[in-house]
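retry 2 of 3: previous attempt timed out while embedding manganese (II) ion. Reduced batch size to 1 and resubmitted. Inputs unchanged:
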Amino acid sequence: MAYTLPSLPYAVEALEPSIDKMTMEIHHGRHHKAYVDNANKALESEPALASKPVEQLLREINQVPEKIRTALRNNAGGHANHTLFWEIMAPGAGGKPSGPLADDITKTFGDIGAFQGKIKEAALGRFGSGWSWLVLADGKLQVLSTPNQDSPLMEGQSPLLGIDVWEHAYYLKYQNKRADYVDAWWNVVNWSAVAERYAKAKAGK
Ligand code: MN
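retry 2 succeeded.
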């Protein structure tokens, strides 16, 4: 069973002005598609691996045969990361989290603003390409960044929220101003989707 490119859950222009239409078209239709195509190509010789959900494959990345491990790290990682990314954004979203997720963020980081500061620090501190994440690790919230398309799943963590800080995610509109992109990104964060991921991760699913 090959991976497939998921449809965006909203129109390509729906996240304007925070994320522009052309960035969304290229990011989803070309970059994410390339990760899917390249992961499928790497899996052609390994039908047993190809039948696993991508999250499971990433959790077990160290058991993947060495000759295709890097290809899958990059491309199955890219597929999973982008699938999450589209889901945790929404038009007319933003604002603040609520419920148990908000309580845990406040308990862990002090307040939502302090948490957002940590995410920004991780985003700006990632040299080159990668992701800034909120994860659940050993039952605790944690902010971290990963290089390239590495997924927190590879470290046994559950990714809850991730901001893509590859230049392809923001360069057309923000050029080199990664900080401005991260600030604007909070206008499209879909907190209810993040809260759902939090509840599932807490329940061990
Ligand atoms: Mn990307």
